[in-house]
């Protein structure tokens, strides 16, 4: 058995892990990164859930399905005749796979560029020794076992889809996000349990392609974490599109049929219902990936969810062991993991890495897109904070009219006394891009007046943000 020694070992090459490894290498450390994801050929596929079965492939399919819907329903408005529009699901999935591989290969290139040693296999703790830790790399059947050693270890093993109790994923009829991204044909009837980010995005993909989609949500409100006004606007848009969303349901027995599944549930009134579908996507949250890490071998503390217990700086209970991303507390977002990975690498170097949880943006990549940062109006009311509100609809935005997409609005919340921006909430075209201005403004503690006084290009969607800022002071110019 061979052993190599490093300054820093990172377990996991998802967004948090690979970024942590690169930043640590930039800071002069000798770094190893271990990751077990495999592509269809069995080769390395770094990037974690985000790159392989999450953020990246879902955006590829969302883009393809949006093109299909535009060609089918909206090209005529522009004077473009297309004839009968068809979807080749195999070609669409092939493009998605190409996009994923490009990202995998890009990470491997970055490792090489930054002199990060990459090990393909599952990393797990073996033992602690004076001044460091021994990590095993299980590379698969027939491969020579390896052990690595380092003074500092960063765990970035991510998360997995949560299954319904007693209903395991078979990825044929009962699907996680993984199976939901690999459907070989458009199902006639698709059921989705959970109206969170994954449920809405995958539901939107297959609805656009022709599936009859029903989303079952246990909570009595739609998108409870989103500003209520923004959530209502989004719900109206989804209803109009034909995405059926039932709230306040209680899911009962799920049975396998000859073709598909049968879902028994009670609606919001407590009335028993049955929904039959060709496919079922379950998107009820995610659980931290700590199984197989052998945490007990070194006494690494886990909580009742299986997450690694860390402090505000991502330090575990063990000296020299850190953890970032989905495997610790906080929002399960790729960009949050990246920021934590950078911060930990800098802390190991004696610097002062920092992550501001108050300015982490959230995005749902549906159409319309939904994005927000900071506190919602309902949160400010509950906290007793005096605030002012400014809203501006995309219906009054020239660029949105030219795009043919005027759904939604920008909403800005500012402190009533200081005018400091407390939250920005967007539902509408390119919300995922527009939110960056709000994040920057809030990070620098800008006021609504600061945004209102900045010159924005015309015509642009970003003018809606400026107008919402003007509206905080009741002086919007174009509405």
Automatic annotation (TrEMBL):
GO-annotated molecular function: dihydrolipoyl dehydrogenase (NADH) activity; flavin adenine dinucleotide binding
Residue ranges of domain Pyridine nucleotide-disulphide oxidoreductase dimerisation in the record: 360-469
InterPro entries: Class-I_Pyr_Nuc-Dis_Oxidored, FAD/NAD-bd_sf, FAD/NAD-binding_dom, FAD/NAD-linked_Rdtase_dimer_sf, Lipoamide_DH, Pyr_nuc-diS_OxRdtase, Pyr_nucl-diS_OxRdtase_dimer
Record localization: Cytoplasm
Pfam families from the UniProt entry: Pyr_redox_2 (PF07992), Pyr_redox_dim (PF02852)
Record-annotated FAD/NAD(P)-binding domain positions: 6-341
Cofactor(s) listed in the protein's UniProt record: FAD
Main location: cytoplasm
Disulfide cysteine pairs (residue numbers): 50-55
Residues the record lists as binding NAD(+): 194-201, 217, 285
Catalytic activity entry: N(6)-[(R)-dihydrolipoyl]-L-lysyl-[protein] + NAD(+) = N(6)-[(R)-lipoyl]-L-lysyl-[protein] + NADH + H(+)
Gene Ontology cellular component list: cytoplasm
Residues the record lists as binding FAD: 59, 123, 157-159, 326, 332-335
Biological processes, Gene Ontology terms: 2-oxoglutarate metabolic process
EC numbers on record: 1.8.1.4
UniProt keyword annotations, A-Z: Cytoplasm, FAD, Flavoprotein, NAD, Nucleotide-binding, Oxidoreductase, Pyruvate, Redox-active center
Superkingdom of the source species: Bacteria
Cofactor descriptive note: Binds 1 FAD per subunit.
Positions of the catalytic residues: 458
Keyword match Oxidoreductase: yes
Family the UniProt entry places it in: Belongs to the class-I pyridine nucleotide-disulfide oxidoreductase family.
Note, other: The active site is a redox-active disulfide bond.
NCBIfam families: lipoamide_DH
Protein name, UniProt field: Dihydrolipoyl dehydrogenase
Highest classification ranks of the organism: Bacteria, Pseudomonadati, Pseudomonadota, Betaproteobacteria, Burkholderiales
């Amino acid at each position: 058995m061979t052993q190599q020694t490093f300054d820093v070992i990172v377990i996991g090459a998802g967004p948090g892990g690979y970024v942590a490894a690169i930043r640590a290498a930039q800071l002069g450390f000798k770094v190893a990164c271990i990751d077990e994801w495999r592509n269809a050929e069995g080769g390395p596929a770094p990037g974690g859930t985000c790159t392989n079965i999450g953020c990246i492939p879902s955006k590829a399919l969302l883009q393809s399905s949006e093109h299909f819907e535009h060609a089918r329903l909206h090209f005529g408005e522009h004077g473009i005749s297309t004839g009968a529009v068809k979807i080749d699901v195999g070609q669409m999935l092939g493009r998605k796979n190409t996009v994923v591989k490009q990202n995998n290969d890009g990470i491997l290139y970055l490792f090489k560029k930054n002199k990060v040693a990459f090990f393909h296999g599952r990393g797990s703790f073996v033992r602690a020794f004076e001044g460091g830790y021994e990590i095993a790399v299980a590379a698969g059947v027939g491969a020579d076992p390896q052990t690595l050693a380092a003074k500092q270890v960063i765990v970035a093993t991510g998360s997995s889809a949560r299954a319904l109790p007693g209903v395991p994923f078979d990825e044929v009829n009962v699907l996680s996000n993984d199976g939901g991204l690999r459907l070989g044909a458009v199902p006639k009837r698709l059921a989705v349990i959970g109206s969170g980010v994954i449920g809405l995005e995958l539901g939107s993909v297959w609805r656009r392609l022709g599936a009859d989609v029903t989303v079952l949500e246990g909570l009595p409100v739609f998108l409870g974490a989103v500003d209520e006004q923004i959530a209502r606007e989004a719900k109206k848009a989804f209803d109009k599109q034909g995405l059926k969303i039932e709230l306040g349901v209680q899911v009962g027995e799920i049975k396998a049929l000859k073709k598909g599944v049968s879902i028994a549930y009670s609606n919001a009134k407590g009335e028993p219902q049955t929904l039959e579908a060709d496919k079922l996507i379950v998107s009820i949250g995610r659980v931290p990936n700590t199984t197989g890490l052998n945490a007990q071998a070194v006494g690494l503390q886990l909580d009742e969810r299986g997450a690694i217990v860390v402090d505000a700086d991502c330090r575990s209970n063990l000296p020299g062991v850190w953890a970032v991303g989905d495997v610790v507390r906080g929002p399960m977002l790729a960009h949050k993991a990246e920021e934590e990975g950078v911060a930990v690498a800098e802390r190991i170097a004696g610097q002062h890495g920092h992550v501001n949880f108050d300015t982490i943006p959230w995005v749902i990549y549906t159409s319309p897109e939904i994005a927000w940062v900071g506190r919602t109006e309902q949160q400010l009311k509950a906290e007793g904070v005096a605030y002012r509100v400014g809203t501006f609809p995309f219906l009054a935005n020239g660029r949105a009219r030219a795009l043919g997409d005027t759904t939604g609005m920008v909403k800005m919340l500012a402190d009533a006394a200081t005018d400091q921006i407390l939250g920005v909430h967007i539902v509408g075209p390119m919300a995922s891009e527009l939110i960056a201005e709000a994040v920057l403004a809030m990070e620098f503690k800008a006021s609504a007046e600061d945004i209102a006084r900045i010159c924005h290009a015309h015509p642009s969607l970003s003018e809606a943000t400026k107008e919402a800022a003007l509206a905080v002071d009741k002086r919007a110019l174009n509405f």
